[in-house]
UniProtKB/TrEMBL annotation:
Catalytic residues identified in the record: Y48
Cited SUPFAM superfamilies: NAD(P)-linked oxidoreductase (SSF51430)
All residue ranges annotated as the NADP-dependent oxidoreductase domain in the record: 21-257
Organism of derivation: Clostridium bornimense
Binding site for substrate: H106
Name used for this protein in its record: Oxidoreductase, aldo/keto reductase family protein
Pfam families: Aldo_ket_red
Site positions for Lowers pKa of active site Tyr: K73
PROSITE patterns: ALDOKETO_REDUCTASE_1, ALDOKETO_REDUCTASE_2, ALDOKETO_REDUCTASE_3
Length: 288
């Protein structure tokens, strides 16, 4: 395993396992499988509704808690100072841990400043080893980095070969905030697993397209948390430290960049309304 060092000196595995869209029914087994394969970084979130299953898997694995880098994220519903503190306490109970390695604000909406103050307090109290943000575009990232007491250590954003976030990464590098990729494969959009450029590069190294993509991320210094529910894919995704892409191949992949999200823009008013409506609907159904 390779590690990156966050701006507070904490070491973080550059490759982890993400549980977004992993159901409650399969999550516990999937996390146990990932840990068995060798993953030591697990990424979940309040809005994934599987923190409890992640916690069960970690306990049942028998692996010492200190050997696992555990991340969760606060959802918009809990964005205020008091609500964030309460929700994180609940998350830690579900995860069966008395500390978190990384805690992120999941979306750049609502009372991010009150919520971030709560993250700072948890960090200073030693309950969280690192804090950060997710889906913050450079302008919002610079704002919170410049006017908060503690600069974020991580910004988790959409990054994959079809949306490489080169400009955003440059801003993160400037502020010494680690970039982390959700959907490192773009969830397969754009038929990426059959991309001829990536397939040809894979043939050259005897690797799959998925392995090429992960290796490309790693060589860019991007933390990745690929998700799969199949243990064989977990093994495949983990086996990316025995080869290095040439600069020529890195350049070929750079040319695939479409410079636009494969999903949506957080700056689209209609999408902001979608998030607002989702929060309201979840209030009605008491999912939080």
């Amino acid at each position: 395993m390779e590690y990156i060092t966050l701006n507070n000196g904490l070491k973080m595995p550059i490759l982890g396992y993400g549980v977004y869209q992993v159901s409650k029914e399969e999550c516990q087994q999937c996390v146990m499988d990932a840990l068995k394969v060798g993953y030591r970084s697990i990424d979940t979130a309040q809005s994934y509704f599987n923190e409890e299953q992640v916690g069960n898997a970690i306990v049942k694995s028998g692996i010492p808690r200190e050997d696992i880098f555990l991340t969760t994220k606060v959802w918009i519903e809990h964005y205020s100072y008091e609500e964030t503190l309460a929700s994180v306490k609940e998350s830690m109970e579900k995860l069966q841990t008395n500390y978190l390695d990384l805690l992120l604000l999941h979306q750049p909406f609502a009372d991010i400043y009150g919520a971030y103050r709560a993250l700072e307090e948890l960090y200073e109290a030693g309950k969280v080893k690192a804090i950060g943000i997710s889906n913050f575009y450079p302008d919002r990232m610079i704002d919170i980095a410049s006017f908060s007491k503690i600069k974020p250590m991580v910004n988790q954003v959409e990054v994959h070969p079809l949306h490489q976030q080169e400009e955003a990464k440059q801003w993160m590098d400037k502020y010494n905030i680690q970039i982390e990729a959700w959907a490192p494969f773009g969830e397969g959009r754009g038929d990426i697993f059959n991309n001829p450029v990536l397939a040809k590069i894979g043939e050259k190294y005897g690797k799959s397209v998925a392995q090429v993509i992960l290796r490309w991320h790693i060589q860019r210094g991007v933390v990745v948390i690929p998700k799969t529910t199949h243990i064989e894919r977990m093994k495949e995704n983990f086996n990316v430290f025995d080869f290095t892409l040439s600069q020529e191949d890195m350049n070929l992949i750079a040319d695939l960049d479409k410079k636009e999200s494969a999903f949506f823009s957080h700056q689209d008013p209609a999408m902001v309304e979608w998030f607002v409506n989702m929060v309201e609907e979840r209030k009605k159904t008491s999912q939080f």
